[in-house]
Every structure is written in C-alpha cells, then in structure tokens.
Write a structure and sequence with these properties.
single chain; 314 residues; alpha/beta; Nucleotidyltransferase, domain 5; 6-stranded mixed beta sheet; 5-stranded mixed beta sheet; 13 helices; 11 strands; 46% helix; globular
C-alpha cells in the first residue's frame, strides 16, 4: 500500500478504530534517513524498533539542485538494510516516505527508483501539505490530553511545516517553507561562527523566508524534529523567541561545539543548530507562542495513515 493522491484514510480524529497492525516506515529526509517499526492500534503507535543514519541528501539538493550518484549509492545501501530489518521484524506492511528531497531535487524520479529497488516496497513523495498533516497527526496523537487548538512546527533539514488544528477536526491551516535547519545553516553560516552583521542578515533573511506563517493563535505549540530536541537539551522543554534569540547569539559568537559542551547532541545535529534555532525563533515569534518539544511526528502520522489504509484493504 502507498499514500497516493494525498493521505488516504487520514481522519480529523486520530482515535479512529484501527485493528492492530505491525508495520515499518522508512523516512527519507534532507538530513537523515530513519526507520520506524511499530505496532499500531487505534490511536496508539507503539515503537518496536527505530534507527537513524545521517546522509545529508539536502546538501546535494541545496548545492547542486539534484542528488548526486554517491549519495544515491549510500541511500540504496541504507534503505536495503532497513527493509531487511523490517522484514525480519515480520511487519505486515513496509512503506517509504520521502519529504523535502523529493520536492527540492531535480532527479526525484531517480531517487524514487533507487528506493523502490532497495526496499521492494511502495515509495511516496509527500507534498508539503501532506507532510504537515502527517506531522500534526503524529504529534497530537501522542498527547494524553490535547488542548483545544494545537500548532505543530515540524522543522526538518530541508523545510519547515506549520500545521494548526483541533484534535476533533484535524489540521485546518497548513503552511510550508523551504527553510529547514540544514538548508538555512548552509545559506547563512560561513564557518563555525557569525559576526553581528552576518547574524542580522541571517535573521532578516529567515524572516523573509517565513513570510506568511501567521496562522490562527493556538492554545499550545509543539516543535518536533531533531533540531527541536537538541534545542531542548540546551534550553529545556519549553522555549520562546527570547530564549531562542539568546541561543542564536551564543551559537554565532562561540560556535556550536562550545555551546553544546558535554550535552548528548550529535555532531551532525550540532552542525545545523544555528539555522534551526533561527527558524524556530522566527516561527515562535509569528505564532506569538512558546514552543514545547513534542513527541511523535511525520513517521508516526504516516504509520497511523498506513494502518487505516491496511485496515480498509483487509
């Protein structure tokens, strides 16, 4: 089964009854490729196995406009092994989703062909709207008691999606910009540090990139993705524009390595922290809200959608 023509089975209410199904999702993003093996029942996604490999496909997409042969070879190797691992876990369904690399690279068809050959399973390139919708559903489904209106900020390596909605209705406002942590850092950081004028230029440019991300006021705003989790290790689980601006100042002045110190943040994540923090600060400003680190995201949302589709086909 594959997500085609949007998100089939996607419901405003993620508590829809879903018979139990064991499935795997391979998530191909700009910064990393991830595996989720899960048991899905009703609204619950129970993680059985998870992994991540940094491939930085977004580096090629940003610099060259396409994914180079070397990166495609690395992707094939990782995807093939993830597929083998999923089948050893006896999943009933294996699906691959591609986010920003499938929208930002001129050879997206070649990328899909590599994944089809490597996994021998369906591959879906998500539209920005579908990515935002799945991220919202995956994050909201993890909340034990969601508030009336929830914003979900899904910051990846190549793009940033913001979705706002009510748990009983689903997301009713979705916007996306090509302002991912990897992409923004590559565009605005030269070296490990940035001077005052360079930082001011980066802030103005990110503000322009995120023009129009002024959705309805939420009761709560969740930030998901690796950058948000890294920021939380530095600032705590809740942060607004002021804290984020201060962190960006420190990153520009000292460099990521000195700011992070002994915290458990990978080097690959540290290298994109500058751009990611800039984006989160601007999004928080536009939402007029503090961001809280959320659990779940696009993989969990895709798992719920695939499980509904699996149930409908049974």
């Amino acid at each position: 089964m594959a997500l085609a023509n949007g998100v089939p089975g996607s419901s405003a209410d993620p508590t829809n009854r879903i018979p139990g199904v064991r499935l795997a999702v391979v998530d191909v993003g700009s910064n990393s490729v991830r595996l989720l093996v899960a048991s899905v029942k009703r609204r619950g996604v129970r993680e059985l196995d998870r992994d991540r490999v940094y491939l930085r496909l977004g580096d090629d997409a940003y610099r060259l406009g396409r994914i180079g042969a070397r990166k495609l070879d690395e992707l094939e190797y990782v995807a093939e092994r993830y597929a083998q691992r999923a089948r050893l876990a006896r999943v009933e369904s294996l699906e691959t989703i591609v986010t920003a690399p499938g929208r930002q690279s001129s050879n997206a068809d070649e990328l899909v062909d590599v994944l089809l050959d490597a996994t021998r399973a369906p591959v879906t390139v998500l539209s920005a709207e579908d990515e935002g919708r799945l991220a919202w559903e995956g994050a909201v489904a993890s909340l034990p008691d969601p508030p009336s209106t929830v914003a979900v900020v899904d910051l990846g390596g190549g793009s940033c999606e913001v979705a706002i909605g009510r748990p009983e209705l689903g997301p009713t406002w979705i916007a996306s910009r090509d302002a991912g942590a990897l992409r923004v850092t590559s565009a605005f950081l030269r070296g490990e540090r940035a001077g005052a004028s360079q930082l001011d230029w980066a802030r103005r440019s990110v503000g322009e990139l995120l023009e129009g991300l002024d959705g309805p006021q939420p009761d709560a705003a969740l930030a998901i993705g690796g950058t948000a989790r890294a920021v939380a290790k530095i600032l705590g689980p809740r942060f607004g524009p002021k804290k984020l601006d201060t962190l960006t100042d420190r990153l520009a002045r000292l460099g990521a390595a000195r700011v992070i110190g002994a915290l458990d943040i990978t080097q690959e994540r540290a290298e994109t922290l500058f751009g990611g923090t800039l984006v989160l600060a601007e999004v928080a400003r536009r939402l007029d809200a503090k961001l809280e680190v959320g659990r779940g995201g696009v993989r969990e949302g895709a798992a719920l959608a695939f499980a509904r589709e699996h149930s409908a086909a049974a």
